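Writing this down once: the sequence line spells out the residues, with the fold written below as integer tokens. This is how one looks:
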Amino acid sequence: MIFSVVLTYLRPIEEVNQHLDTHKAWLADNLRQGRILLAGPLAAGGGGLVLAACADEAELAAMMALDCFIAQGVARYTAHACEPALAAAAFPAQWAPSARFI
């Protein structure tokens, strides 16, 4: 299942930035494990976007609980789940096994 995860900062950016290096290390670890497909700050500011591949919401929740932004209370997240039905031919099949590739 693919999850679109939006992080929203709850604290001033100076406080968020105190945790940025640890957050980036968490992102890198999950990228290497194939659980995060991409991540970056929102263009409008105030948070970030994570595209994640997890078996279900429980796996996503466990992964997100380990993000220092969540654990330290400087951000919250909302997630929207999708079981891809269509995917671009270049999209990795492992993250959309039920999709029709075009």
In short: The helical segments are 13-17, 20-33, 57-65, 68-71. The beta strands are 2-9, 36-41, 47-53, 75-82, 86-87, 100-101. The mean pLDDT is 96.
